[in-house]
């Protein structure tokens, strides 16, 4: 599809707003316009709200792609869409503190399966397909807690498309044998008995599979390997630091803090890099500089 003048203008605004390089418009034309056309065809043949999943490790560009797909679907076909992040369904700070006391201290840190309110996510996504007014939860990472319900966004449903993005979206459980050996220093020192990683794995099996089952069309942004995650996540921290105003309360992690934080995600991310390409409907393979090398 050739972009008309209005779509080109909206895309230029998007690129400027997201502080993306000018070459991103070429990426959109080569890779993401055809993806949007695939989605539009699926919407045309669907009798319900289409849930599109975007999965990728930290720093892979999944949030940007999710927002772009909403823009393209709205501008190309006038569809009613929304993009959601699994991050907005984190358990509250108090709930994670309780998990830290009763299950394992590492569960205080948000991110891994077991630290999300899956029933809330299921409820919101299902209601977006049928109800008139749906409240969308939002999470404030600056204070590590959910915004009060009075500040949630309200959306008129039903929608045509819901784009759900998340770093662990679609990644299934590991076998008990795969959990035995620690994958990094965090697991070796702070989860020597395997309680934390076993709990995370159990949550994937018992809770997250039901969330993944809502996804009708899964797109994966596949990193070259896990070693790129730290570099890409550091770039995000640098970008955030540069955007902050003097006196901002947002938390910027130093290198040591970031290394430890990334290790929380390592096991599931590595497992996903190995297993998810065979399950996703579309896989975009990424180069080391985060550009797209190809589509599978």
Beta-strand residue percentage: 15-25%
Going across the biggest sheet, name each strand in turn: 2-7-1-8-9-10
Percentage of helical residues?
40-55%
Give the terminus-to-terminus CA distance: 20 Å
Q: What are the secondary-structure elements, in order, as H or E?
A: HHEHEHHEEEEEHHEHHEE
Mean pLDDT: 93
Report the C-alpha radius of gyration, rounded.
Answer: 19 Å
Q: Label the overall shape.
A: globular
Q: How would you sum up this structure in a few lines?
A:
45% of the residues lie in helices and 15% in strands. With 296 residues, it is of the alpha/beta class.
Provide tags for this entry.
alpha/beta; 296 residues; Rossmann fold; 9 helices; 45% helix; two-stranded antiparallel sheet
Could you walk me through the main structural features you see in this protein, from its secondary elements to its overall organization?
- The structure is a single chain.
- The chain has one domain: 3-Layer(aba) Sandwich (Rossmann fold), CATH 3.40.50.
- The chain is globular.
- It has helices at 5-17, 24-45, 62-77, 93-102, 118-127, 185-190, 195-212, 227-243, 255-275, and strands at residues 50-56, 81-85, 133-136, 139-140, 145-146, 153-156, 161-166, 217-222, 282-286, 292-295.
- Strands 2-7-1-8-9-10 form a six-stranded mixed β-sheet, covered by helices on one side. A two-stranded antiparallel ribbon has the order 3-6. Strands 4-5 form a two-stranded antiparallel sheet.
- The longest helix is centred in the first third of the chain and has 22 residues, at 24-45.
- It has nine helices and ten strands.
- Strand 9 (282-286) and strand 10 (292-295) form a beta hairpin.
- The chain is α/β, with parallel strands linked by helices and 296 residues long.
